[in-house]
Design a protein that fits this description.
By secondary structure, this protein is α+β, with helices and mostly antiparallel strands. The protein has eight helices and 14 strands. The chain has a seven-stranded mixed β-sheet with strand order 3-4-5-6-7-8-9, with helices on both faces. It has a five-stranded mixed β-sheet with strand order 11-10-12-14-13, with helices on both faces. Helix 1 runs antiparallel to helix 2 and helix 6 runs parallel beside helix 7.
């Protein structure tokens, strides 16, 4: 079993390309052959009509679970579909073993409707610290990789979040109304104000990528599921952005965060969004 952070650093120094290959292979073998080819019996509901799962989700997660643990012996996987089947497995995020946090198809609703706006998310964490992440949009063949302290790349080119242009409305992607409670909607109301252009988010992973690219100014999300946020939060950080919860603290993948929270291109934007969220909460 991996015992110390130096060993994981050595893994990241030499094996990130192997993780990339596993992510690409999962998408090529289990996701893309089903894109725009899904039969009705390959789509199921989880908690309701807006919470979908497909055979692509299940098969890709199974593939990645086997491949990632083989790459890093002693590690464990927390995947969205495995947690749905057994919620207790989520606790591994707080454990001592290195943990892979996996969302096999982030944006399942888009995937089901034949929209290319979905991605596969993989993050590696240890003792609550995000160490690396992979965000792969297979329908667009875009891959973003971030390693803590080493920056972020999109298709091999450095990512820079930058800062919003002065005087322009902030563009903010928020939790989608279909997935929010009345209390969560009220907490997000502060964004509906002059100088801000909020819109419902699509795939969370792709919204984080848009922040890291400087194409979106911030996100404002009201849920904690680590598989939706882990990869993107590190990507934004390594591109020069930041993230804050309603308590003014960085988001913790281990949970217990004051919600909503924001990820933004720079600290000033994060503070501005946080102030508006505080007013709406």
């Amino acid at each position: 079993m991996i015992q110390d952070i130096e060993t994981i650093d050595e893994f990241l120094a030499h094996r990130t390309a192997d993780v990339e290959e596993a992510v690409r292979t999962a998408a090529a073998t289990e996701i893309m052959p089903r894109f725009r080819q899904l039969a009705a019996h390959e789509i199921d509901e989880k908690s309701g009509p807006h919470d979908l799962v497909t055979d692509a989700d299940r098969k890709a997660e199974e593939f990645l679970t086997e491949a990632l643990v083989k790459l890093l012996p002693g590690s464990v996987v927390v995947g969205e579909e495995a947690v749905h089947a057994n919620p207790a497995t989520y606790e591994a995020i707080k454990g001592e073993a290195p943990v892979w946090i996996v969302d096999p198809v982030d944006g399942t609703r888009q995937f089901v409707h034949g929209d290319p706006g979905f991605c596969t998310l993989v993050a590696l964490a240890h003792r609550g610290v995000l160490l690396a992440s992979w965000t792969y949009a297979p329908a667009r063949d875009q891959l973003a990789v971030a390693v803590r302290g080493r920056g972020a790349l999109l298709d091999g080119e450095p990512l820079r979040a930058g800062s919003p242009a002065p005087g322009r409305d902030l563009e903010v992607a928020t939790s989608h109304p279909d997935y929010t409670t009345d209390d969560q909607k009220r907490a997000l109301l502060g964004l509906w104000t002059e100088g801000v252009s909020p819109r419902a988010c699509g795939s969370a992973g792709l919204e984080y990528l848009a922040v890291a690219r400087g194409e979106l100014d911030a996100t404002a999300f009201s849920w904690e599921a680590a598989w939706d946020h882990a990869a993107g939060l590190l990507l934004v950080e390594e591109a020069g952005g930041t993230h804050l919860t309603l308590a003014g603290e960085p988001f913790r993948i281990t949970g217990g965060n004051a919600l909503p929270f924001t990820a933004a291109r720079d600290a000033a934007t994060a503070r501005r969004v946080l102030g508006l969220l505080s007013g709406g909460a």
